[in-house]
Amino acid sequence: MGLIKMTKYRTLLLATIGFNFSFLIWFSFAPFTGPMAEEFGLTTAEIGILASSAIWMAPFGRMLTGWLSDKFGAPAIFAIVLAYVGVFSIGSAFAQDYSVFFVLRLIVATAGITFVIGIQHVAEWFEEENLGLAEGIYAGVGNAGAAGGALILPRVFGTDWSGPLFSTNWRAAFFYTGIVSILLAIAYYTLGEAAKSEAKRQATKENTNFKGWLHTATRYGTVVLAAAYIMSFGLELSMNGWLATYYREAFNQDNLVIASTFAATFSIAAGLLRPFGGYGSDLLARKEKNILPFFEGQYREQWTFLGLCFIVVMMFAMTLAGLSGVLMNAVVVGFLVGTGCAWAEGAIFAQVPAMFPNDSGSVAGVVGGVGTVGGIVYPLFYSAPWLSNLHIGYSVTALTMLPIVALSAWVFRPEIAKIANTAGFVRSTQEGTTVASGDD
């Protein structure tokens, strides 16, 4: 038992370090949008496209790697992703043509798919009653890698950088983070163990077929959590890639380090506070405490729903803070938006493995993959040329979230929530064929 317990916490540590760095290298471009735009001649709208493009590969990539993690085990899949991401990050440091650079950074941006690999890995080792906290620690500290990138990279690779290989700071940053990624790949493959027992490994592996994936992907629980993840994690992705530009352009803040530091306050909240979201969900479930009577008995659902509502309110507040013209108002509200993201994300991924214990990788892949769509779409709202100013995009984004909140309210009702892991929008027969249906 002692060895299992030690390996369980080693798994959590290994997954957290791997994902933290994945997040850092995923958004390593964000602190350098200014000098990159100057070198390649990019407009503000084109910077918005670059921020959006960092997410383009994530939806399909997360769905695929979630399934692959269930089938082949997390250590091998995590190591493969870290290794090729490192190689292409190194390649992007040498790119002189913007088209080549853009394609290479698209591939580097697939570092974000490691999220579902770590979710699956942690779920294979932790018990249901502690899953919310464990997944919250993993994802929360991991997501804070974006803050690490915003705080560390522009300081280590400053505007006066003059290294042995590069005189351009962002090229040096991409090269050296690529080297670290390859080293982490070796460490993960060497030290990682797929599951706490062979029985657990086999139970997970047996469900990795397309019919089983289609069944879990279309359950009410999977669909609503994926939609909720669009407006929480998708929002976080979009803000990580945009806020440094927003603070610089909307408030005429020319200091790259200061703008990146302000942006990092959001990433710190969205990342490091995520365990609070998972722990709150665990606590309500253990104590069987109702905080929203109309969702009586659905304790994790209540906690998730409150988090989603908080995000919507804070996004409207983000517009008001920007229109005030006071930079610090926007920074403070941005921190609160990050807090809402952390709350909802931790709650969502407390529900995923608890609801689907033997399909956690596949379901995490669907939820995590679909959730990244927000990171693709929302930056286009923030930088849209038809907006009167850069502050209005946050309210536009909040309006698009209201249908997701309404869907959550429907699925989280006790009569639906109790069957949300078996009933769905596609009905599965015992033979595995499917027909369209509203319920099971």
Automatic annotation (TrEMBL):
Annotated Major facilitator superfamily (MFS) profile domain residues: 11-417
UniProt-listed Pfam families: MFS_1
Chief location category: membrane
Residues that span the membrane, as ranges: 12-34, 72-94, 100-119, 131-153, 173-191, 212-235, 255-273, 303-324, 330-350, 362-380, 392-412
GO molecular function: nitrate transmembrane transporter activity
Protein name stated in the entry: MFS transporter
Annotated source species: Haloarcula taiwanensis
Organism lineage string: Archaea, Methanobacteriati, Methanobacteriota, Stenosarchaea group, Halobacteria
A Gene Ontology term for the protein's cellular component: membrane
